[in-house]
Amino acid sequence: MTSLRTLSRVPIACLVRSPRPWITIIGLTLAAAFVVLAEKAHGATSTANHVMRGSFAFFVLPLVAYALSTGVLGGRGLCRATRGVVALGASPVRSAFATTLVAALSSAMICGLLAAGLCAFAHGPTDPPRILDVPASFGVGVLGGATYAAFFLAGAAIGQGSMRGVFLAFDWVVGSDGGGLAFFSPRGHVTSLLGGPLCANLSARQSSIALIVLAIAYAFAAVNLARRDRC
Fold first, then answer.
1. What's the CA gap between 86 and 82, in Å, rounded?
2. Which SS3 state, helix, strand or coil, does residue 119 take?
3. Who's near 111: CB < 8 A, 6+ residues apart?
4. Are 211 and 147 within 8 A, CB to CB?
């Protein structure tokens, strides 16, 4: 049986060798930094709270996770991305799981670091103490990044993989209204954890648990959809 470590080499290589995800990450980071500088130039004193709930939660986090997920897949659907190793005898389930795991871990790490860095850079005099705010933002970035990656991999497991774009649109539309359907979108929970309105009337603690549950559920869905829809 092929080990997960061996199966993870293909998605890692796809991510490392593809310039598009890294160009997207650099561009979004610079754009967020520009927003921070603009806020401070206008005299904002709680820049971190405003930017983390706004630019980071709405654009940076989901788009970075989307770019990383696309990079791990080599721009293909989950089924096609694992077809090569499956043709060599690897298990479709283990191949899909390894790819999903690489996407989730890379997204969690990079989104966590971006969240911590942006929070530290944006910190204003009326924001919570940096020593508490930065680690909290890092945790939200890790949770949100992993959940978004699993969310997009579930979309990539449907058909040819183009559904991950539909999932992104669903997250933007439904995740912003705070209603019942927002529970199934990472956006509402991430925004709530960053000090925004509650998602589906859940407390921040409950939203943290919800993100973990959603990450597991979407990863499970991605693996099973890829197994059933072999190409």
1. 6
2. helix
3. 61, 64, 65, 141, 142, 144, 145, 148
4. yes
pLDDT tens series, the chain, 231 aa: 678 788 899 999 999 999 999 999 999 999 999 999 998 888 878 899 889 999 999 999 999 999 999 999 998 889 888 888 887 778 888 899 999 999 999 999 999 999 999 999 999 889 889 999 999 999 999 999 999 999 999 999 987 777 899 999 999 988 877 678 889 999 999 999 998 888 988 999 999 999 999 999 999 999 998 876 555
Closest CA to 148 of 14, 44, 31, 56: 56
CA distance 42 to 79: 49
- The count of residues in the chain is 231
CA dist., res. 161 & res. 34, Å (int)? 33
Quote the CA–CA distance of 68 and 61 in Å, as a whole number: 11
- Token output for 217: 């559920």
Contacts for 127 with CB less than 8 Å, ≥ 6 apart:
45, 46, 47, 48, 49, 133
Asked if 123 and 47 count as a contact pair (C-beta separation under 8 A), the reply is: yes
pTM of the model: 0.94
